[in-house]
Amino acid sequence: QVQLVASGGGSVQAGGSLRLSCAASGYSFSSYYMAWFRQAPGKEREGVAFISNSGEHIVYADSVKGRFTISRDNAKKLVYLQMNSLKPEDTAMYYCAAGRTWAGAWDNRSYSNWGQGTQVTVSS
């Protein structure tokens, strides 16, 4: 059974940094592409960062380009999201997702498994 467990969220002031982690188990991690999504209260879930199964192909949402970095360690079955220069508008619940059936980096249909979410709160 595929399991994704996200961690690393917290409360920081604007300009600060956090690193989120997503630990995977129960499947062949290296055969899945991974992504981070986020959902703020009252807003739709949006894609933040995508990484291919090999790590060679990476895509970022325009809102986080230059500030966030996604990476993965296939040997450890981990995917990371390094978040720097955080802004209050980055406040959201962050979810990691795994998939193999492509429908687009930000299309929910691309992802068959989701983590439970980790809260990120950025104060001004």
Order of helices and strands: EEEEEEEEEEE
Quote the beta fraction. over 45%
**Straight-line distance between termini:** 40 Å
Main sheet characteristics: 7 strands, mixed
Shape: globular
Number of strands: 11
Structural class: mainly beta
Mean pLDDT: 96
Number of helices: 0
Unreliable segments (pLDDT under 50, ≥5 consecutive)?
none
Give Rg in angstroms: 13 Å
Helix content: under 10%
Describe this structure in words.
0% of the residues lie in helices and 49% in strands. With 124 residues, it is mainly beta. The chain is built from no helices and eleven strands. Strands 2, 4, 5, 6, 9, 10 and 11 form a seven-stranded mixed beta sheet that branches. It has a four-stranded antiparallel beta sheet with strand order 1-3-8-7, with no helix packed on it. The protein is globular, with a radius of gyration of 13 Å.
Q: What's the arrangement of secondary structure elements?
A:
Elements: E1 3-7, E2 10-13, E3 18-25, E4 33-39, E5 46-51, E6 58-60, E7 68-73, E8 78-83, E9 92-99, E10 113-114, E11 118-123
Parallel strand pairs: 2-11
Antiparallel strand pairs: 1-3, 3-8, 4-5, 4-9, 5-6, 7-8, 9-10, 9-11
